[in-house]
Amino acid sequence: MIGGLNLVGVGATVSGIILIVLGLVLMFLGRKLVKVIFFLVGGIIGALLVLRFAYLFPTMSYAYLAALIGFIIVGLIFYFLLPFGAGLLAGLATFLILRPIIGDLLITVILALAALIIVVILFNKFLTVGTAFLGALILLTGLNQIAIQSNIILAEPIQLALLIIFTIIGCWVQFKT
Q: pTM, whole model, 2 decimals?
């Protein structure tokens, strides 16, 4: 039973295989995928912004060329500002969590700035570990789904050990590539 949905038979096996494939992709290529996705999202936003003003161009050919340039420029901005954006989110989260606990505004701001700086500096490391862990979790979910169809129940300590092993393998592969 997954999320209140009891998957049985072929549907469970197929969805388990899909989860395994997605988990492996994220486990081994997660850092690269996130960066590519952010480039594409930024690029699409840039192209759409330029096309919003297409009526200003003498012909649609110029508008499409400008949209391509907008795609590349804004895509690169998103790509290169990804670590800073993650740092801002970490700093804001740190501030919002610690402000009621610590009470002193100056100390809270200093700790939030420290979180921002640490995340910016170590962004690729955090992204690698995070995507490897998430990929391993998805992979393990797919394996469990198929195992249940075969009446095999993996004990929680075994699942935890597999999660740790898969995460380490994913981190190792991502750091090597």
A: 0.74
